[in-house]
Design brief:
Blueprint (H helix, E strand, L loop, with lengths): L31 E6 L2 H4 L3 H14 L5 E6 L11 E3 L4 E3 L8 H8 L12 H4 L17 H6 L4 H9 L2 H11 L11 H10 L6 E6 L8 H8 L1 H15 L3 E7 L3 H16 L15 E7 L8 H8 L23 E5 H5 L1 H7 L1 H5 L9 E8 L5 E6 L4 H8 L9 E6 L5 E4 L9 H6 L8 E6 L4 H15 L5 H18 L5 H17 L3 H5 L2 H20 L17
Parallel strand pairs: 1-2, 5-6, 5-8, 6-7, 9-13
Antiparallel strand pairs: 1-3, 3-4, 9-10, 11-12, 11-13
Helix pairs in contact: 6-10, 6-14, 7-8, 7-10, 9-11, 18-19, 18-22, 19-20, 20-22
Length: 556
Amino acid sequence: MSESAPSAPPAPPKRPRRAADGLRPLEGPARASAYVCEAVSCLSAQSHDVLLKLGEQVSGAGLKDVEVKRVGCLLLCASGPLVQIPVTGQLFSNVRPDDLDAIVEALADVTPGEQRAPEAPFFSRQRRIATQNSGRIDPESLDDYVEKGGFEALRSVLTSMTPAQVREEITRSGLRGRGGAGYPAGLKWNTVAKAVGSPKYVICNADEGDPGAFMDRSVLESDPYRVIEGMAIAAYAVGASEGYVYCRAEYPLAVSRLRKAIHSAGRAGYLGLHILDSKLGFEVDVRLGAGAFVCGEETALIASVQGGRGTPTTRPPYPAVAGLWDQPTLINNVETFANIAPIIRKGGAWFAGIGTSTSKGTKVFALAGRVVNTGLIEVQMGTTLREIVFDIGGGIVDGRAFKAVQTGGPSGGCIPAEFLDMGVDYESLVGVGSFMGSGGMIVMDETSCMVDVARYFMDFCREESCGKCAPCRVGTTQLWILLDRISHGGATLDDLAQMERLGAMVQRTSLCGLGQGAPNPIFSTLRYFRDEYLAHIVDRVCPAGVCAIEPAPVPV
């Protein structure tokens, strides 16, 4: 691929705007809109019925200049179905299809130029880049995406930037891979670009398997074109001609919308041969994963895409040099690709000015557990845990005491209350025995038993082990047995010491990140909550009242 930037292709003509799902199109601009969330959590609570019924009632009320529109995730997931009137900022939660009068009245009362009401802290404390369009566009409408500036970045790189300049901008931004390890994106892109081999590939890792995590799913359901645009820009930057999105089959809505977006983007000239009349040719296909957590690891993912069993291989060589079918392969996750277009539009320096000195930009988290406001959040790197849990999250359910927050998925750690004022970034989380992971964040209160938490995650890891290496295959099972014994009050202090030795061995000798990270929940809970382990072993009680402690044997 030539390093010279081609001349600008003509801009495509704008197509007429259509309303979602066959609702009547508006002839002119809407005086007001009602955004109905149709991400999977709201859909499961009848939000599609809400969309249809609201359209009927708005039409029946004679509100001809009001648009009822399907959108993606409105972020406050546990309160769905959600309907928002964006011009006023009103958000209606737990909406029922047979109780829409208040929404219709609010739409009728909207006046031109009405001042928007202040947002609740859950929304106002966020800084949205990757989720910028979530809940603001119809995820199945290419027109909506283009009207919000979609594919402007792709057009810009194809008309005014060389591949090297694109890579330089990504490097300047300081963007690190959002899949968990935090590897610098610019460094990875440059490695693939310089690697010898053809064809080159771009893979989007959407195999999101952490318990409680739904960030990638939500982005794909709400803004699939953003991910496609990011992949196309990456293809131009590294010289790739083919791309794959590896997505969990358990995400049928995300897969459906992604496939529709790929089809629409291809028909409009944003994918395929000679994209936007340039020399870039790039095709994208979807590959479904069978639910194996280990396929989140790059080499296991590649094996699965190739049709083999999803098991990891030793590295080097790294996928950037010899990946899919032994050719140079760029692998980034959904959130990473969702950040690419904004970086190109606004510049790497803009993105680098957000966050901390070593962790740039924002991070999307799935906030779950014993917190009032559960849902999807995106915050600037360096935001404190206290602000996330108590300001954005609204505090602990039922006014109970905060105990810990677990980050990093099954390989992460539990962070106690003493670190609530710690800014969240890659380095700070590692420093307290956890790590960023893909973005799951589970809040726990005093009713959580930390021994039981460690046992739960170890059970997950042993079930998800691919079995290729003995340290993970055997070690995780033995660690679970020891944790199970402790939780039932049948362990000794020697068992505790053995568990620590075994965990260190599994961590050092396992083949891939699944086994290497599996003991982390044990080590972090022992580091901060060792007294709970001792209570189970020595006193034979569970301080949280969660574990079923078996009666002590009666001496004969």
